[in-house]
Amino acid sequence: MSCCPDIAVPVAEKAGRKTARAEEIRLASRDLGDGLRQTILTLPDVHCAACIAAVEGTLGKTPGVELARVNLSTRRVTINWRGNDGESPDFAAALANIGYASHLASIEEDTQNPVLSSLLKALAVAGFSAMNIMILSVSVWSGADPETRHAFHMVSAALALPAVIYSGRIFYRSAWAALRHGRGVGVLLAFALSVYDTLHNAPYAYFDASTSLLFVLLAGRTLDHLMRGRARSAVGALSRLAPRGSSVIRADGTIDYVPLSEVKPGMHLLVTAGERVPVDGVVVKGASELDCSLVSGESRWKRAEPGSALQAGVMNLANPLTLIATASADGSFLAEMTRMMEAAESERSSYRRIADRAAGLYSPVVHGVALLSMLAWLYGTGDLHKSVTIAIAVLIITCPCALGLAVPMVQVVAGRRLFERGIMARDGSAFERLNEIDTVLLDKTGTLTLGDMRLVNAGDIQPRLLSLAAEMARVSRQPASVAIAAASAGRQSSPVTFDSLKETHGCGIVGRAGDAVYRLGRPSWASFAPPIEIGTSSTTVLSKDGETIAVFAFEDSIRPGARELVQTLRSAGLSVSMVSGDNHPAVSSVARQLDIGEFSAELLPGEKVEAIRSLSAAGRKVLMIGDGLNDAPALAAAHVSIAPASATDIGRSASDFVFLGHSLMAVRDIMQTASRADALIRQNFGMAVAYNLVSVPFAIAGQVTPLAAAIAMSLSSIIVVGNALRLGARVGKYGRSFRAREPARAAK
């Protein structure tokens, strides 16, 4: 059954929704240059692949529109257009003509979800009606006397009426929409014929079939909406990183807090400690430490000083900074990250599940067969009642319940099995996509490594100097200081008693003991000697009166299971590469330890996305495994994505799977389960098709009553569910490896 928009009415008639008029669209659009503008509209009524085709097709025919792309996860459409004399096309009117409400998208969307609330209420009403009618039907079909049977039919009609009217409005708010999209035809026909038979005191009525079918359809719609809602959280979380406003320093020295939309290039902004940089800018006054994990994914803090270029979203950790804005909020790095996330999710949402592809052919074929059956029997017998009854039997016995359960039931069982192993599946369709991948991209910091600094040369440092450095390091929470303090735990106390200890953010720690001055920090700051590097490790220097007395080398700890996972992926015929925003020496060191031949370092978030798009354009199906804020667009752009639980909220939201443990071998468990789930899905489809091939001829021949059709439909659904439950019992049979890809495919 299709699940396209509900009503073909003007947008202004939607209660509480504002019409996106042409002038509003023009003012809210973004200039892409060369006369091309971009507008993003929210479409609350978009539900499925057919909706996407309808919206994109209609907008594509609108004069001036060059591109229209729907993102099903966020329920938004991005439109690139050129207007005559600066006027925008009336997108809202074009969408209203095909039954879609629209309004201008905003970063701060309403947190309430009226669509979900409406679905849950409709599902509750349909479930209540179906349950009670089914109880009454048991007595009717068991041979109740005529008076009791008629009374039960009347009660069933009273129970079915609110379900058909209230719950069914989700599928057919106008007769034309129901007929045009094939929605609810079986429900309406079964209900209408049942009312007719009840009024004429016929022995049988089919209220149970109509309400049960309605309940099943609504359950599928509600579950799908909940799943889409999880995907929408990634873009929303990224948008909320942007501050609501900024402190602007006026020409007379006064400071005003203005909305972010009013910040323009050239303005002087004040960013205090603990605030995120609101827009891209250059520091003109002050020095501080920055958390740049949003940009590079590195856990180490970075120094900001006059002349440093900062990007929106970077966190100021220490001292106030004054900067000149170089971009507006709409043109900043954070806004670009949000657009990349939306574009990436839009590309992924174009993936059509197996069930969607089957349903695209299923509904028109079934309705065509039912119509032809009714016409043939009407022509042959002239009995309209019998002809309609046979048509209803065909519609019920071919109800897509088994077909609809074939995929989601397996996905639910697979998700439960993974959850028992500490793995969460955020998108059921990812099980299908995971079986198509041939390329794996791995982030470094926080993914292949744990993101923790580790002192690697503690054995080469004199114990007294290590204790001295640890005493200084305890006043700081900087990652290198924490690593030094941890390495010295349980050892002898410092041989020096400090009169004072002071941390200079971005440089290190100064300690005074009598006339001696000790420094622990950056080599260029702590010592008069030239900077010292130990291999590819990061270094910190301990000096006394400017003379280096100890050098500390740090490396990031490799995540458990990283080596085994890389070997397992290779043995399955997959291409494995590393992409990271970290510096080249650090990335090279990890790649060498894990025997990864291909790697890229110092990549910005946009460059990671471009790398994935390049691979996709070459026909590759990419699995991205990452954790940081800077990985979120790449996780959304990949064919399928996995993140550890230690990832940022946005990284987890953008991923299809999240594993709770430390070991990367959870990825292997995910792929094992996905491989088995794929096999069961195909078996379920085979059984659903075989069931229809056997049962439909009997229904067309008039040998099946609507009751028998409903029983057969239920049995087919039970078989599909039972087959899906085999997933848990059979996963172990595949041992500790997952299905290897075909050599030809892996060699692409």
Number of strands: 27
Separation of termini? 37 Å
Number of helices: 27
CATH class of the domain at 11-106: Alpha Beta
Secondary-structure-based class equals alpha+beta
Shape: elongated
Average pLDDT: 76
How much β-strand is present in the residues?
Answer: 15-25%
Largest sheet: 7 strands, mixed
Q: Helix proportion of residues, in percent?
A: 40-55%
CATH-defined topology of the domain at 11-106: Alpha-Beta Plaits
Low-confidence runs of at least 5 consecutive residues = 1-20, 107-112, 174-183, 730-748
Gyration radius (Cα, Å) is: 32 Å
CATH architecture classification name of the domain at 11-106: 2-Layer Sandwich
For the biggest β-sheet, the strand order reads 15-27-26-25-16-23-24
Write the layout of secondary structure elements.
Blueprint: H1 22-28, E1 30-33, E2 36-42, H2 49-60, E3 65-71, E4 76-81, H3 91-97, E5 103-104, H4 114-141, H5 146-166, H6 175-181, H7 185-199, H8 207-239, E6 245-249, E7 255-259, E8 268-271, E9 281-285, E10 288-291, H9 293-296, E11 302-304, E12 309-310, E13 315-316, E14 321-325, H10 333-349, H11 354-381, H12 384-397, H13 401-406, H14 408-420, E15 423-425, H15 430-434, E16 439-442, H16 444-448, E17 449-455, H17 463-473, H18 479-487, E18 500-504, E19 508-513, E20 516-521, H19 523-526, E21 538-544, E22 547-558, H20 562-571, E23 575-579, H21 584-594, E24 598-600, H22 605-617, E25 622-625, H23 632-637, E26 640-644, H24 649-653, E27 657-659, H25 666-700, H26 706-730, H27 743-746
Parallel strand pairs: 16-23, 16-25, 23-24, 25-26, 26-27
Antiparallel strand pairs: 1-2, 2-4, 2-5, 3-4, 6-7, 6-8, 8-14, 9-12, 9-14, 10-11, 10-13, 15-27, 17-22, 18-19, 19-20, 20-21, 21-22
Helix pairs in contact: 4-5, 4-8, 5-7, 5-8, 7-8, 7-12, 8-10, 11-12, 12-25, 12-26, 14-25, 14-26, 17-18, 25-26
